[in-house]
Amino acid sequence: MAPAAATDEEKAKKAAEKARRKAEFEAKRAKEGNPPKKKQLSKAERRELQEKQRADKEAKKNPKPKADKPPPPPVERPTTILGHLTKATSSTPPADGVPASIVELGQKYAAGEFDGSNDRCRSLLDAVRTSIKDYAPPPDAAAARDLDVKLKSWASYLEKCREPTASTLAALKRLRLVASTLPPDISPSEAQAAVETCCDRFREERVELAVREIGRRGAQKIRDGDVVVAYGYADAVEALFSEAVGRNFEVVVVDSAPAFAGRRLLNALYAKRVRTTYVRLTAAAPEIERATLVVLGADAVFSNGSILARSGAFAVAALAQRRHVPVLVTCEAYKCHDRVRLDAADANELFEFPSSDDTPPLTHLTYDVTPASYVSAVATEHGLLPPSAVAALIRELAEKETA
Amino acid sequence: MAPPACASGDVEACFQRSLADGTRAAPVAAIEALLGVIERSGAQTMHGLQDELCEGRKALVEFCEQRPACLGGRTELGVSSGCELFLRHVTRTFLEFGDFSECRDEILRRGRAFAAHATNARDDIAGHASSFLRDGSRVLVHGRSRVVQATLKAAAKSGVSLEAVVVNGADDCGACVAQELREEGITTRIIADAAVAREMEVIDVVLVGAEAVAENGGVVNKVGTLTVACCARAMRRPLYVAAESYKFARAFPLGQRDLPNADVDYTPPDFIELLFTDLGVLTPAAVSDELIRLYQ
Fold first, then answer.
1. Using the beta-carbon criterion (under 8 Å), do B215 and A383 form an inter-chain contact?
2. Nearest CB to A386: which of B250, B257, B288?
3. Where are the residues of the annotated region Disordered (chain A) (predicted)?
4. Helix, strand, coil: what percent of chain A each, to 5?
5. CB under 8 Å to B17, separation ≥6 — which residues?
6. CATH number assigned to the domain covering A100-211
7. Chain A contact set for B215 (CB, 8 A)
C-alpha cells in the first residue's frame, strides 16, 4: 500500500500549489482592474466587417472558381401540395440488360393496367419467372451475386414506371433475399430453379392461400339478415362473399370513378345469385345508415394500423363510424408494411386527366389513408386483428422469416 | 389444494370432481381434466395424443353447453379459451422435443405448472391491482367475479379502507356479493342496476371481472357491464377489468351480435382503461400482442 499512499501525498501537494497560484493570479487581476473594452462599432461598420469575413470564408472554400463551369440548374420546386408526387410514365428508358418481359410489364404499369395490389404482384412474379428462363450469368461473375444485382436493376426500372405497391415491394424483398443467400458456387440452372420456386411459393402461399383463408375467416362474421357494404373490388372481399353464399344476406356495392372496380365485384356476386345493390359513392350515405357491416379491401396496412386503400375508402369508413357500423378490412399479411403514412398526400400515385378548353385539369389520387381509429378489425390469414396489433404481426412475421 | 385424482373416469367426470370443492374456476378445472386425459392416454404418437385432447376439449365444451348450471350461470367461453391455451402449450412443447415419451413427461410437468399458475393467478392480480385502489376509494362492482372479490379483500387486508358499491339486478346476485364482501369487513352498499348512472357521480373506480377477454382487448362479461361502461365513459371514470390470462380467447366479436347468449354483453376496448391480469397490468391493445405471441 506504500506507493499508493505516496501518490496520494503528491496529489495533495499539487492541489495546494495550484490553489496558491490561482489566488495570486486573482489578486494581480484585481489590482490591475478590468481589461480595456473594445472600440464600439456602429451597425453599418459591423455589417461591413461581417460581409468581408463571409467573402473571405467563401474564397477559402472554393479557391479557384472555374470560369467555364455552368451554373447549377434551378431546382424545380413543387407548386401545389401534390407537387412532390410522381406521375406514372411510360417514357422511362430501360437500363441496360433489362429483359423484354420486364420492359413490357413496365409499359403496362405505366399505362395504368392491373387494378389492385394482388394483380400487380402476380404480374410481377410472372414477369420475373419469364425473364429468369433466359438468364445467363456473365462468365466471370458468381451467379448468386449477379442475380441479386439484376433483380435490383429490374426493380428500379419498374419503380420509375409506376410507384411500387407494398405487395410488389414484399415480393421483390423475398426474391432478393433468396437470390442473395444462394451458395456462391451455385450453377446458373440451379439459381434459376431457386428463383422460380420462390416465385411460385410466394404466389401460392402469400397471395392465393391468403385470399382463401381471409375469405373463410371473414365469412364467419356474416350472419343472416346482414346488410354488408363493400367498396370497389378486392380479391379477399370477393372470396369472403363467396364463402358466405347460402346465408341470407344482402350486399351493397359502392363504387366510384375513375376505375369503377366495383363492377367486377358486382358481376361476381350476380353470378353467384347474391342479393346486391349497386350505388355510386355519392349516394352511399343512406345505404351505410342501414348497413350492419362494412368490408373494405386494402393495398397496405401500416404499422400504426392505418389503411392504404382505394381512394374513397376513408369516406366509406367515416360514414360507417358515424353509425357505429363495424368496419372490417381484409388484408393479406404480405401487404402489412413496416412504415407509416400520415395522409393521402404524403405519398401516392397521381393521375392527371388531360384538360381541354372547356374542362379544367382533373387530378386523381389512387389511394387514401384511413386512420386506425376508423377500423374495427383487420382480417388477415393469421386471424382477425385489431389495427393496433399490426405492428406485432409484422414483428412476428419478420422473426419467422429470418429464423 | 391437491389436484383431484384423474386416473379413472371420463373427462367430464374429472371436470366435475375438480369443480366440486368450489375453489377452482371452471377453466382451471377443465385444464386439470385435460391433464387427466394425458395421464390416462395410451397414445404412442404426438398426433394421437393431440387428437385425444381435441376430443376432450370438445366433450368439455359440449358438457358445459348442456349443463350451464355447473358454471354458475357463466358461458362456456372461459372453458373453451382455457382449453385452447392449454392445447397451444402442448403443441409448443411438441415442437421443442422430438422424442414422444420425453415430450409427454414435459407436457405433464408444464401442464401442472400451468394449472397451478392459473390457480395462483387471483393473488397475482390482487397484487397488481392494489396500487390502483387508494384509501377512501369508492369502487363500483358489477357481476359476481372471484377475482374482483379477491382484489377487494386483499386491499382491505392491507389496510386500505374502501367502499364497495355493488350493482344488484333482477337475479339478486348483487345481494350475495354484498354479503360476501361485508363478511370480509368491507363497507358495502347495494344499488339497483337502473341507478348506475345516478351513482356514477360519486364513484372513483369501476372494477369488473370477465368471462372472456377478446383478441382486441374487449371483454365479454355479465350483461349490464356495457351499461356500466357507457356510464363510466360518459362521466369519465376509469373502468378496470380484472381477469386471469387463461380467459384470453381467440374470439373477435364485432358487436353484440357475435355473442353466444343474452346473459352476457361485449364491452369494446375503447371503454376499458386497463386490464389487471396475472401477466401484469395491460392496456387493451397489449392483449392482442400477447395472443399473437402465443399463437404465431
1. yes
2. B288
3. 1-80
4. 50, 15, 35
5. B4, B6, B9
6. 1.20.120.420
7. 383-386, 389
Residues 6+ positions from B233 with CB-CB distance below 8 Å: B239, B271
Contact A392 B250 (CB under 8 A): no
Report yes or no for ipTM above 0.85: no
Considering only alpha carbons, which residue of chain B is nearest residue A381?
B296
| B294 to chain A: closest CA residue | A396
Residue A376: half-sphere exposure toward Cβ, Cα within 13 Å: 24
Cα–Cα distance for residue pair A344/A310, rounded to 1 Å = 10
Q: B254 vs A326: CB contact, 8 Å cut-off?
A: yes
For chains A and B, count residue pairs whose Cβ atoms are closer than 8 Å. Answer: 52
Q: Which domains does chain B have, with CATH numbers?
A: 11-122 (1.20.120), 133-295 (3.40.50.10470)
Contacts of A183 (CB under 8 A, 6+ apart): A144
Spell out the alpha helix ranges (H) of B130-255. 146-157, 173-183, 196-200, 225-234
Phi-psi bin for B217: left (phi > 0), alpha (psi -120 to 50), beta? left
Identify all chain A residues contacting B290, using CB atoms and an 8 Å cutoff.
Answer: none
Q: Which three cell numbers stand for residue B51?
A: 387428437
One CATH from 3.40.50.2300, 1.25.40.180, 3.40.50.10470, 3.40.47.40 for A221-402: 3.40.50.10470
